[in-house]
Write a structure and sequence with these properties.
Elements lengths: L2 H13 L10 E2 L6 E5 L5 E2 L3 E12 L5 E12 L8 E7 L14 E6 L10 E10 L9 E7 L14 E4 L4 E2 L5 E12 L5 E12 L8 E8 L8 E10 L7 E10 L7 E9 L13 E5 L1 E3 L6 E12 L5 E12 L9 E7 L14 E7 L11 E2 L2 E6 L9 E6 L1
Length: 404
């Protein structure tokens, strides 16, 4: 086959043959050059692009391994082309319906076409190329298309899509000291994100004198029926409010966070908060509870005088202070390991500490400082400790001093 006639055949096909909806195989007169249509399995849903309106024609002598290829295809990117991607045509002796990456068929020729333009737009490619097969072109029965990019690395990250969402006209919460004359609330951000921007534009009239410490809050709701709230999804602090009862215009933007994505926020209400306006929390009640403190009858080496015990704290609290006073007189020299402890009881037979009774329950133990070593001198037991009991302070009604 003479080269001029081969190139002339490609030119004829590029200008005329692909314009037909159903091209026919053609053999040029006075030539061994044939133009043959190759079947292409469709649709082609490549990982990188969708390829439609595909046609492929083989040009050359049936006995030759070198051939010309004429191609037409519309290629639509899935995430935008970088400008490095190239369409590739794979030629086979037989074809299944799988794409090149998954097929079991063996390609006998691969032809890489020119680079695609960068961007998101669909591109129609009409081009010619030459190639060489592993067998005579008469044995090529079909073709498959793909888009490859050896230099692209990971696919480009798609830019997040931003939306703007207007909410139905906001009204005040039932207990908010406001009259809403006009209110527009808009959200902006990614539909699937729970963090986004909020824009507020409104005219508000307070229904009571404001102190200047109050703040305007937009309450966001999901599962709304129009302007009727479903469930509470988040609150956005928008603006400080001025002192007095005069009508005021508020135009502000703020960062918003919701428990649902932006796309599910359906309506809003207006509220007023004032953390510093809240009445102070009442001071916790403090009780003083005095108990007689009796020494355990099993103590033989010590005597005690002037023992007293006071519990200080909230009557209903299990945490409280313990104040003890008194004097201990050793009868023998102490080893230094003896430690005085106070055992607190509930369910005592009496409240005087001398009658613990069989039903008393030890609910706390308070340790004091060890007695001095090798001393028989009187030791002051004055001390204050914090302790935690199993029951509230008010339920403790007797105490015993012991040594361990």
């Amino acid at each position: 086959m003479a080269l001029p006639r081969f190139l002339a055949a490609l030119a004829v096909l590029a200008t005329a043959g692909l314009a037909q909806a159903q091209p026919q195989d053609t053999t040029l007169s006075s030539s061994t050059v044939a133009i043959r249509s190759l079947p292409v399995p469709v649709p082609i849903d490549d990982a990188t692009a969708k390829i439609t309106d595909v046609a492929a024609h083989l040009v050359g002598a049936a006995s030759a391994t070198k051939f010309g290829l004429s191609v037409r295809a519309t290629i639509t990117p899935k995430a935008g082309f970088t400008g490095k991607e190239r369409p590739v045509v794979y030629l086979y002796a037989s074809c299944d319906n799988e794409p090149p990456a998954r097929t079991g068929d063996v390609p006998v020729a691969v032809v890489t076409l020119g680079a695609l333009e960068a961007g998101d737009a669909a591109q129609t490619v009409i081009t010619t190329a030459t190639g060489e097969a592993l067998l005579p072109s008469a044995g090529i029965a079909c073709s498959k298309f793909a888009v490859v990019c050896k230099d692209c690395g990971e696919p480009p990250t798609r830019a997040p899509r931003k939306v703007e969402q207007m909410l139905p006209g906001a009204v005040q919460e039932s207990d908010a000291p406001l009259k809403v004359d006009r209110a527009a609330v808009a959200l902006a951000g990614e539909p699937a994100s729970t963090s986004f921007k909020l824009s507020f534009d409104g005219l508000l009239t307070p229904t009571k004198e404001l102190t200047g410490k109050e703040k305007l809050v937009v309450d966001l709701y999901a599962a709304c029926n129009g302007a009727t709230p479903g469930f509470f999804a988040g609150a956005v602090e928008v603006s400080d409010l001025s002192v007095g009862k005069s009508a005021l215009t508020v135009r502000k933007t703020a960062d918003a966070t919701s428990i649902v994505p932006l796309s599910r926020v359906g309506c809003a209400k207006l509220d007023v908060t004032c953390a510093s306006c809240e009445p102070p929390k009442p001071t916790a009640e403090v009780g003083i509870q005095r108990l007689a403190l009796a020494a355990d009858p099993g103590i033989k080496d010590l005597s005690f005088a002037g023992l007293s015990l006071t519990l200080v704290g909230g009557p209903s609290s299990k945490e409280f202070g313990v104040a003890v006073d008194g004097k201990a007189v050793p009868k023998v020299k102490m080893s230094g390991n003896e430690k005085p402890v106070i055992r607190l009881y509930t369910g005592c037979a009496s409240a005087n500490g001398n009658e613990r009774g069989p039903n008393a329950t030890n609910v706390a133990t308070v340790e004091l400082t060890n007695f001095p070593k090798d001393s028989t001198a009187p030791t002051k037991l004055t001390a204050t400790n914090e302790t935690t009991a199993f029951v509230p302070m008010q339920d403790i009604n007797c105490a015993v001093l012991d040594v361990r």
